[in-house]
Write a structure and sequence with these properties.
Helix content: over 70%
Shape: globular
Number of helices: 22
Structural class: mainly alpha
Order of helices and strands: HHHHHHHHHHHHHHHHHHHHHH
Oligomer: single chain
Distance between the termini: 25 Å
Number of strands: 0
Strand content: under 5%
Length: 362
């Protein structure tokens, strides 16, 4: 418990130092003074690098934290296994990474570390594309939304999420998105279903767009059986089917819609929508996807592909606050609420059972 809380405290303080420095010298995008701009990039960049390494350390050196930890920690693959998985499109990227790492450092923790480095590194790269000086707020939400903790449980899918998050965006062409999804599919099969999400998210937000997203949410359940089959969930596997048909806590549905309430409170909605079109679309899709998959814990894992955008979306509202005190009050309330959600709904296992491993154990 103490380890994880200490980690959160470090993220908060270092992130706040970076945010305050950014506020003092303005944004790198608006800075006109070369000296201030140079100082900004140094302090903010150092903080950014330190925080990324902190996340890599927590994830990469954890020991049996996460449901599937042992499967990756003990996994050993031959080159024949890797080739066969590529031929069969059986999520070969993880096998390839494991094979390469074990041929350099034959240790289970080394595999866990490299997977953590790739996942966290890709997520931080994705965050950097949208960052406007809200580093602390974004990273704390990244934790409290359960995105970081999910990488302890769903290792392959978390890497696929991070890859899509890092390289997708509003400016991407459909062809580029297809290439990104096809590569992510080699990491985790579920990534294939993200392509229509990326296509829809690029559209301008208007009445037609809202209707498309809502109608899509009602259509998706008709394809659940095919999704189970595609993911290899058989009705003969009672344990898998129990997980697949297990409903999520309704509080998750409520939390998924909470960010959209903020949009309703804005006076200049059109300016915000035009500027952050892709993010708003992703948050709206996330809410509808959460509702659609509420009766299946397995399907609800698809929300991880969209949930991460909430951590970028919420801090954008700070620019509409009149005073610094209003900003502090707004983010303070938001972070406290999401912390409570994380602690009681998502993070108890990681808080109370977190431990570190060391090299040479397996």
């Amino acid at each position: 418990m103490i380890k994880y809380y200490l980690f959160i405290i470090i993220i908060f303080f270092i992130g706040e130092i970076a945010q305050n420095h950014n506020r003092k010298y303005h944004s790198i995008y608006n800075a006109t003074n070369r000296k201030n701009n140079y100082s900004y990039k140094n302090v903010y960049g150092l903080a950014y690098g330190f925080l990324m390494l902190s996340f890599v350390f927590m994830s990469g050196f954890r020991y049996y934290v996460g449901t599937d930890y042992g499967a990756y920690y003990k996994a050993v693959y031959t080159w024949e296994n890797v080739k066969e998985s590529f031929i069969n499109f059986d999520e070969p990227i993880i096998k390839l990474i494991t094979y390469l790492v074990r041929n350099i450092v034959n240790d289970g923790l080394a595999v866990i570390f490299v997977l953590a480095l790739l996942t966290v590194g890709l997520c931080f790269y994705g965050i950097s594309k949208y960052d406007e000086g809200h580093l602390s707020d974004t990273l704390l939400l990244y934790i409290f939304l359960g995105v970081f903790g999910f990488s302890f449980n769903g290792v392959r899918q978390a890497l696929a999420v991070a890859f899509i998050f890092a390289f997708s965006g509003k400016k991407n062409s459909t062809l580029k998105n297809v290439i990104i999804i096809l590569f992510a599919f080699l990491i985790h099969k579920s990534a294939l279903f993200v392509l229509p999400i990326l296509i829809i998210a690029r559209r301008k937000i208007d009445t037609k767009q809202v209707i498309i997203i809502i109608v899509s949410a009602f259509v998706v359940p008709f394809f659940f059986d095919r999704f189970y089959s595609f993911m290899g969930v058989s009705s003969l596997n009672l344990e898998a089917m129990e997980y697949a048909t297990h409903a999520i806590n309704p509080i998750r549905v409520i939390v998924s819609f909470a960010p959209l309430v903020l949009l309703l409170l804005l006076k200049n909605k059109r300016i915000f929508l035009d500027k952050y079109n892709f993010l708003v679309n992703m948050v709206f899709i996330n809410a509808m996807l959460t509702v659609t998959t509420a009766n299946s814990a397995l399907l609800n894992r698809m929300v991880q592909y969209t949930c991460i955008y909430i951590s970028l979306y919420i801090p954008k509202y700070k620019q509409y606050m009149k005073t610094r005190n209003d900003e502090l009050l707004f983010m303070g309330i938001i972070l406290i609420l999401y912390f409570a959600f994380w602690k009681y709904e998502l993070g108890s296992d990681f808080i109370f059972q977190f431990g570190f491993g060391h090299w040479g154990e397996y």
